[in-house]
């Protein structure tokens, strides 16, 4: 037998891709302590903490408006399955954390969806989970976004007649109420 035949079967590793955005990144460099574009192994029994306290947090955000420990991610396996997931917990007493617009207060936690947007303050983080089989560790792969991940949209209800109020404003007229029988 060759050494190739004797080699152990290679396990795939769960990888958490995190893409960071902040509007002031270029001026304030709050992500300067993050290791971008390089996979980093994290033991499965470790909690990955994000915040500004480098003695506690594995991922440091250099911003005084960020809590000492902002949030944590815990790797786990679902009961009676081989499916691996992450749990996100808000560890900030002052700042609410949203995951796909679901608000988490202090010490609230939920399972991290396979693809989601995490927000706190002006920070936006796109999280995407790439499945793997390893139970011993997972990997993180950090990316830096140049444009906002979440675009704010001004949504206006469309009236029953199908004409948006912005149509009238662009015509220099204000909307007037009419009887639906007059249409």
Automatic annotation (TrEMBL):
Keywords (A to Z) from UniProt: Cytoplasm, Immunity, Innate immunity
Database matches in Pfam families: FHA (PF00498)
GO biological process, one term: positive regulation of canonical NF-kappaB signal transduction
CDD domains linked: FHA_TIFA
Entry's Gene Ontology cellular component terms: cytoplasm
Subcellular locations according to the entry: Cytoplasm
Family annotation (InterPro entries): FHA_dom, SMAD_FHA_dom_sf, TIFA
Tree of life domain: Eukaryota
All residue ranges annotated as the FHA domain in the record: 49-121
Classification via PANTHER family: TRAF-INTERACTING PROTEIN WITH FHA DOMAIN-CONTAINING PROTEIN A (PTHR31266:SF2), TRAF-INTERACTING PROTEIN WITH FHA DOMAIN-CONTAINING PROTEIN A FAMILY MEMBER (PTHR31266)
Similarity remark: Belongs to the TIFA family.
Protein name according to UniProt: TRAF-interacting protein with FHA domain-containing protein A
Organism: Vireo altiloquus
